[in-house]
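Suppose a colleague, Dr. K., hands you the sequence of a protein chain of 509 amino acids and asks what its three-dimensional shape might be. Before reaching for any lab equipment, you can write down a predicted structure in token form. Begin with the sequence itself:
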Amino acid sequence: MTDSPNQSLDVDVLIIGAGPAGLTAGYLLTKAKQRVTVIERDPVYVGGISRTVNYKDFLFDIGGHRFFSKSKEVVDLWNEILPEDFIDRPRLSRIFYGGKYYAYPLKAFEALTNLGVFTSALCVMSYGRAKLFPVKDPKTFHQWVANQFGEKLFSIFFKTYTEKVWGMDCDEISADWAAQRIKGLSLGHAIVDALGRSFGLNRKPAATLGEQGGVKTLLESFRYPRKGPGMMWDTAAGKIKAQGGEVRMDRTLTRLDWDASEKVWTTTISRSDGSTETLRSRHVISSAPITELSDALGAPLASADKAKALRYRDFVTVALITRAGRGFPDNWIYIHDPSVKVGRIQNFLSWSPEMAPEGYACLGLEYFCFEGDGLWTSPDAELIELAKREIDKIGLIKAGDVIDASVVRQPKAYPVYDDAYQANVEAVRQEVEARFPTLHLVGRNGMHKYNNQDHAMMTAMLTVENILAGERRYDVWQVNEDAEYSEAGISGAEEALKSERLVPRRVDA
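The predicted structure, expressed as tokens, is then:
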């Protein structure tokens, strides 16, 4: 990859964002002896939304992050970076609806008992009707889920929670989001699985981190770093430094200038104290939100209006600290009850016993919002009181059991899949690839794809392959939500290349 004259460059590759995508790229590039600098806006934490926050030795995630992937390459990389610190954890999650708890995935007889015979019969009839008269070519989340489960189950188990998460009507959300987040699961599949669960027929030993396959929604176990997902990314950042790279914290992208004659990027970076610095590089890998990247480009995109139209959903985590034994066994509980604002509640001790000091527990209440709205701007004390009231109302613990609390706000947590997002992203993508051959978009926000960390990692892994090869061998946009590329990770990409399903293009062409 190294081009001459290299002495005029500060680094070979500048990476924007120290989340799973950025740190994966940084680790693999420094391992390949490339000069790399990673910049991260957060002054303390790497890992992005996959970080683990430490509050008085209580550890909690920003959302839950199970370590499972169908991609062998991703699994192998997890094992390479963090070989000794994974633990096997049982998956247990429930739905809270109508004052009752439902195992998730559903247990047939429990669901029948809780819903009652009449409502259950309506669900089955609604499902039958959906199979006989499906919506052709569903465009919205509502249409896609109703096709798969029927209108009645959609209204019970999908509508309220989804609208809490997105702050939008289900008829405004693209079917793409449902297709990738509930992929491989239908009512028929769920009933067969639920019957097996009800009779205890589906129990299997915990999967090893190397095992592949299975419908993710129905997984019964997963691997997890013993001190949270941040342990993975703290270790990755440390390995980047040990391999000669840099990870600079408290750095925000301000401006990106492309010199087409020299094929060099000049990146201007700001710090919270008002100081600035610049770095010259041959390549830039960006996991920054597309909207922010577009704003930073010195030569504006013709598709800048498309980038600006992309939307994001944000959320607030309120971590409540209580005594051990006053929690619940679930990893998390989905709150479908419309009488409370909380959308999901985590029990971090159920993720790992090392997430809280001995004798204590930490529960995370997640509130989905838009940056700048009433929830987002509420003082921490008000959010803590709200969380205490709501967890008491649900009946998980008493408000008086809470002995301390902390609030974390996460901007741009979820790229929004509205009816225009695909066209907007595609317009930006095509222009970036045509005008800036050494600007690489990766990760959840960098590609505006609401996928998991293994997907983000695979986009970075293939980008590194492109950079090291000196040509765009792989189209990273072909990585699907299971971090598979043509069904088999990098090996599948190699086969696609050999069969000319992908046409190699020189990066500097």
